[in-house]
Amino acid sequence: MWQPYRLVYLLLFNQILLISIYSAKTSDQFRENLIIKPLPDGKVLTHFEFSIHSSNVDESDYDLFPRSIGQIFQTYKARELHLTFTQGRWNYEGWGYPIAPSAGTGVELWAWLWKNENLDKNWRSLTNALAGVFCASLNFIDERSTVQPRLSFRPEGVYIDSELFNSAELRYGSLPHENVCTENLTPWLKLLPCKSKAGISSLLNSHKLYNSNFHSMSVHVQPVCQQKECHNSQLEILQTVSTVFDPVRESGKRDWSLYQLFDRDITRACPLAIESNIVLMLPEVEDYSIDPEPFSIQTVDSTKRRFGVYDLTKSKTNFKLMMKWKEAFFEYDINPIQPDVYAHRYFTGFGQEHGGIKVNLFNRNPTNSINIQYCDVIPWYLRLYMHTLKVTVNGNEISSGPSYPIKQLFYQLAVDRSRPSVMEANISLPADTITTLSIEFDKAFIKYTEHPPDANRGFDVGSAVITTLSKAESKWDSILYQQTQDGIYTETLLISLPTPDFSMPYNVITLTCTVIALFFGSMFNLLTRRFVALDSENRDKK
Amino acid sequence: MTMRTRLLRRRNIIRTLKKWIPKLRFILFAVGVTWLFVLPSKQYSKRTYISENALLPGQVKTYYSWSEVNEASVYAESIESLVNASSLEKAAAIERELRKSGFKTATQNFTVNILGKPITGVNVFAILNAPRGDGTEALVLSAPWKSKDGITDNINGVAAALSIGNSLKKYTYWSKDIILLISDGAEIGVQAWLEAYHDYQRSDMIGSPLLLRSGAIQAAVNLDFPGTHSYRALGLFFEGLNGQLPNLDLLNIVVRICRVSAYIPVMLHETGHIYQYNDDYGDYKSSLHNLITTMKFQALGHPTGNHGLFLRYKIDAITLYGKVDEEVNQQKFRFYEIGSVVESTFRSLNNLLEHFHQSFFFYLLPSPERYISIDHALALWASTGDDPNIQSAPSSSVTVTATPGSSKDAKHTVDDLAVALPYNRRPRRIAFPLAVLIGTHAAGLVILFVVKNHFDISRLAELFGIPGYLSTLSLTSSISIVTTSVLVTTLESRSLANSRSQPLRPANLTPSPDWAVLKCFSLAYTGMIISCLSVLNYSLAVFVALAVVIPFSLFRPTEQQLLRALQLFVLLVISPPGLLLLSGVDIRAFLEWQLSEYLVLGNYLLPFVCCTYWPTILAYGIIVFAPVR
Q: What keywords tag this UniProt record (chain A) (predicted)?
């Protein structure tokens, strides 16, 4: 399940890199890429990637690398940082896998922090600092929602094997109900060397980006290596924006053009970029036309998928791009193709006392079983009962034995008002099956002050994450370790807990009752107490 | 001094009360019944209002256009050609249409054994994922294949649902997913789907699990537009299973939209009293009719449409029903208006920030835009201290019954006041009366068991050439008669023994007769049941109270044969079989209907009647036949 296109870019970048790396005067290298992929259901995925590699972030002299992120990264002793804002759901069944690695609805933040005595304090400060930078409520990721997964969220940077896990610790937190909007995009754009003034980033028009079916934007900071020996380790900041547009909704056809999608064309490449490409993933069928034709076409050997590449640095005029299909209107595929692994999580039961949580893990691969890492963070107010954990494969319950899909299980018990439950499992999904995990819980009766202002809406439970690991086909030395991991995110869920009636009559009743109780208490006290006049002289004698 | 006057005053009050309670209870009963008829009058209802400000009904421009109407007509034609196809074919055809429109779809098969024969069906549903929505909340637009009578095909309803689904898909403003559900059969399909959606098996329905889901359902709108006609008026059905009601705001938005933007006539149910928008009250007769219809539906606990099953899962839901009218000169409506109303309603529901909670969940509607809140309707708590002629039974004071009134009519309990009354010292033996109550309830359970297995029994009976329902009827009656007579005989022998063993007791130490204690218990028990019921299913409580309060407070053993026979006759009339026979319904059909509702949907009327109502009648049968001394 590794992504072929990623490899293509890496190869592509490396070629240009070899030329540029020695010629570049500055130490930082900025690359910008836009990947456009027509999706099977007529939608169009646009994925922007901006990366800056820097060799000297330790010093206070910043070149292209954004100072605000670099300083936060240094100050709070982070080794690796991943922050993603997502609005909407990635439709795995209709769109396949996303190019961006993370797609859980809301905000997701995970970081590997260097081990020291201030680690938790650093994490708190990190969330607060990032909250400030991105105008998001990241500061609400407190100890009640922070966890340390053991199987998922492995480091993505390049490290020496020995210090992979020994010298750093993982922290993960998510806010499932955080809305993503222009106020988050603006600070994100400010991190780019060309802002949104030139180059590919000039397409990022918030009016259009937020009128789409899916929108995700992220910042990843991690160490990388450029050469085999890795003697000059670099720090990379990778910023991505993924957006899924639906041209069919507006016109009934899946034709698109850059201008139609973003309401803009690209005037020129960002002058600071050593690489500025638009990559169009060409559909397998041939009934379309592209204007202009790609400057070059490349093919991935393993899958035979073809890519059209437009190098913007070679384009002198305004760059326009459009794609037309030879059809009067778009017809949806009656039998959509499904990806190998996807998941679907939901609550069972009804009422405000008990409930259950179930996750269906699909493996549509007809021949191979697939190993996945499942990670689910469940807030403390859902009190899980571990003994009710059931595993069924295609509806048949399996409780033990070699066919038991759970190979390894980590479980962290929740502590009321201080930490959530975490369930992590290493699961082997048999070929062409639906594996279902289910667990039951009681809903906690929480304090009335713990309800949010929109109490009757309910509480959001963040996505579960399914990670499929594929050991990197390492182009580097074997002592260096890097793996690619693909996250599959389930739906976020909404649960209603027992909610008091916060309406005005209720308030009036509680208030009046309190007043009456106070009044009655003091009156009763006065009435029942016996008042005895004491003789002051007698008392002195006693 | 003060203490003395206080005590004297207290005694006076108690005496007055004692003197008045027997009369008061009739007055209160009369007030209660009168109140029921006063309720529909204009003074007692208020005009409805939208309580949740976010809903903003009727304030959007609707985009449902004539091109979609054409599409709906095409759908209607193809659906009409499908009505005789098998469930599977129907589902496949609908699923194909939905897939073509770009929805994610899935089907669900279900099988359930009703009345001894298996019923199978296939539900189809599609999910429109809200663009950029997180999928935690959903709205349902459902249309069953069969109209609410279970016979007519809901052709226009299904066609409208499909075309509305297509039109809703064109816009990005949805904050909640929209689920289109085309359910098979009438109510069973929805029941199967809801059980599977919540993954919570409660009946013996076998449904295939759903592999496609959305988030928590916030509201549901069910379309019931039978046939391919045009419609005279939009009927609103809102009573759910066991008398549950959706939040009043949901009804309000539909009525408001019909009034201000779609301009189509509405009425409650299909009573025929078309609501005049310029006269929100209407006349007394129509108000009373609307009220009684609602109460009847609530008391029967029958969901008046597919929406009724959603309510159990705390999903507010409503059925929009198209009332066909044969008159030619009337203004009529079809897809365009249906589409506009539904689209506008969904726009309002889409605005919901929280679950429906602002407005009322307990109300009575005399007209679509007037409501009687529960605090007005509840409830003439006619307090019935028991017959003080029963010198022996101060503890019998009992609060029975329902209906409106202020707290002034609140319960009076004699117990608290019975401080120094001489008869208080009479011993009352409670073991036997308790045993009687337990015995009658055990009989009730047996009756429920018999009724539940009605179909096995009737098959057996039919071998002997007896109609099935008669055998069930006779079996249940004989259980009642046997229980009653056994207990009465024991009672007689007991009282005989008592009178022999203790011939010379001082009057104030004579134990009170068993029947008196039993009557106290029964009354207290009935009072408790009715008051509990009144908060669960108000209408059922009212009807039970109307039936039993007067007979229960008057009946007592008597030496006079005629009086005894009269009492017995009344008891027979208000007993469940008596009521059934009197109402003139087809007993067989009624029994089957109630049974399937109980077994499949979970309507609790049948167990309530068998396990609570019937036993109290039996207990009274025993009281009537008990020896006086």
A: Membrane, Transmembrane, Transmembrane helix
